[in-house]
Structure formats: C-alpha cells, structure tokens
Amino acid sequence: MLLIEYVHQASVPPATDTAGRCTMARTMHAPSLPDRTIDAYTDVTGPDRLERLGSLADTLADDRILHINSTATGGGVAELLRSIVPLCNDLEIDTDWLVMDADDDFFEVTKAMHNALQGNSLPLTEAMKAIYRAVNEENAIELEDEDAYDLVVIHDPQPLGMLEHFEETMPEAAIVWRCHIDLTDPAPEYLAFVSEYTARVDHAIFSRSSYVGETAVPETSIIYPSIDPVTEKNRSLDAEAVADVSDRLDPLSFEDPLVTQISRFDPWKDQFGTLEAYRRASEDVSDLQLALVGGMAGDDPEGLELYEQVAEEATADPNVHVLTDLPDTGVNVLQRESDVVVQKSLREGFGLVVSEALWKRTPVVGSNVGGIPLQIVDGETGYLVDPDDAIGAGERVVDLLEDDGRRAKFGENAREHVRKQFLLPRQLVELLDVLADELDHGQ
C-alpha cells in the first residue's frame, strides 16, 4: 500500500472566561489569492455569458462585497472562493474574503452541526451554543465600520453567529447566506438553532431545491456550484507533467486498471464502502488498483482520525493506495489517468469532484444522493447506485472497465455535460444576479 502521511498540528485553544467567552482577540484573515482574468475563460464559455458578466460588473461597480467562511483550505467552499473572489476583482467588483479564526472546540461544535444538519446528530447542548456564539462574536468584532460593506455573503452555518453583530454595525448591508450542505433530513433541534439566524438574512442560496425544506429563510435561490477549468487541478496537462506525477506515485501504476475516489476523509464520503466496491470489482478485473485520495479541511477535526482508520483497513492490500494532501497537479493527473472515478458518498451537498473527473473525460460511478445525480447522467456519463449499495457500485465499475468503447463514449459525453452546466462562468453569472437584486440593482 502506498501511504502518504499527514502531519496534524493542533491549534491552541484561546483563554475563556467562566461564561465561555474568549478573552483574547481573534483576527479573521484574508487568504492569499491567485491571479484570475475573465479572458482566461473565453475558450470554455460563450460570448453571451461573458457579456452578461461584464454588464453585472458595471452594475456592481460601486458596491463592496464580503465573503466569510471557516477555512481557507481543504474543502469545496474554499476552492470556489479562491476562484470567485479574484475573478470578481478582475471584473472590478470590490470583493473581499475573510476566514474565521477559531479553535478545535469551535470546530468540534460546528462539525457536530454539519453532521446533524445532514441527519446524524448528538444532543445540542447549551455549552455548544455558548462556544458557537462566543467565537462568532469575537470574529465579528473586527468588522466595526458600518460603511465597510454593502453586502455580506456568509457561507454555511459556521459564521452565521456573526449576524447579530452585523445587524448592529452594518445595519444597511444586505446579508446573503450560501448553504453548501444537504438539508433534506436535518436533526430538528439543530435546524431550529440555525434557523434563529437564517430567518434574519435577506436571501439564502441553496445547491438544490430539496435542501430548503423547513429552513427559516425569507427568500431563496438555487445555484449549482461549479468547477474552475483554468486552475491547476482542472487545466489541461502535458505529457511531462503526467510523467512527473506518475514517477512520484510509484508503485501505483497507470499501466494497470485504476479506480480512484477523491474526497475529504469524512464519514459521509464512505471510503469504507468504496473499499468494498473495489474488492467486488477485483474479483473480475485482475491487477485492479484503488487510490483513495483526500485532503484535510482546516475546519474538520474528524479528518485525521478517519484517515488513520482508512489507512489501517487498507494496509494489507498492496494495490490500495491511501494518499492525502496531494498537490492539485497530482489530483488532476489521477482524475485524468484513472479508468473510473468513484464517489461513494452517503450524503453529499454537491460533490464537485464528480464534475472535476467528468471534465477530464473520466466516467464516474456515484451514489444517487445530493448533487451527484445532477452531474452524472446515468448510463451516459457514468452510473448512479444507491448509497448503501457497495456491491452494485463494484459491478458498475466492472461494466466500465471491461468495455473500452463505452468508457470512451461516456467520457466524451461527460466533458460536454460539464461544459454546459458546471463551469465557473455560469455559476458566477447566477451569483452576481442574486447579489445585484439584493442591492436593488436588478436589471
């Protein structure tokens, strides 16, 4: 088994008073951003969409916009913001991105919230609520200027607790909540707690209409997430780059059949189910390899523990390779060189790794949950299976591995499907439309 180790550095909890309030200042930080220009997208999107972006940019030229989330690395939200924010600034829309400063106690609470909102909960205690409110308050204090921003986009539940402070310090600012998670079966007490905040935002954006459910929100929009085709993870690669990654991943071989799953080490991603599917497929496909590839999100305290469990489960099989924190080029190469990609999630807010693989003409076998069926056209770009059907997933992998023509046809279909539906310019048009409406700039 090829195993790349991850070194975890625990954060140091801040001092607190007897009420659980922080007694040391927190400072949100602005992540470093890559350069982005709208001209880089002329080959992947139509002129009408680019023209619309230009028009929206003119409309928003006098506004300041802030995005807030809980981590700069390791998750889909951070990846989206790393592309959206610099591209907005290239369009001359004054846009900032700030990441919360928080400790392990806070992330334990918000991970419990995340799990509960997706259907798996522990009791929500008053102590948990106190930690959540205290850390949000300390972060929000930094933004005291009532004229600082015209609109704030809060991503997911972690920063929602800042809302109360914003209502006092920026009473004229529009507040948009962008929910990236699956809320089809939330634990009622957690949904009620979150709804105390969401009921007071101006607008909420979800990834699927079914996610809105009983969430208290005044107005909603549905916007599918997207991938950025010009990033290091998704751009075209030359043979030299592929060969370099191949050398570094030895003994994993691109000459033998390869199935890959790329996702955070998170119980909802079901790496153990993927192992079971691989074992079923191995009965029919000789020399089959499996790469389980994942990153560690900064706001997910469960990641390291699950990574170690997966690595232990896989250690006896030399054809299973557990990889973590690969550079984006390495992920790009694996998605291109794999014969099939699997996304065996039990719940999934959207799962952009599916579109990443499809964009690279690699068919995907994925669970029929969350945003995955929006991306996989069953029988055309890949296959959908029930989330608890690991054996069925393995059989679908075999169907693709044993038919080169089908795999190639699915790959071409997949590329075109993503081009039309899941590339960044489309998402950005829809997002800016919502923001313009909330700022009373509707066109």
Automatic annotation (TrEMBL):
Record keywords: Carbohydrate metabolism, Glucose metabolism, Glycosyltransferase, Transferase
GO molecular function terms attached to this record: glycosyltransferase activity
Naturally occurring in which organism (per UniProt): Natronorubrum sediminis
High-level lineage: Archaea, Methanobacteriati, Methanobacteriota, Stenosarchaea group, Halobacteria
Domain Trehalose synthase N-terminal: 67-212
Positions of the Glycosyl transferase family domain: 255-416
Gene Ontology annotations of biological process type: glucose metabolic process
A Pfam family it matches: Glycos_transf_1
Superkingdom of origin organism: Archaea
Family classification: Belongs to the glycosyltransferase group 1 family. Glycosyltransferase 4 subfamily.
UniProt subunit comment: Homodimer.
Protein known as: Trehalose synthase
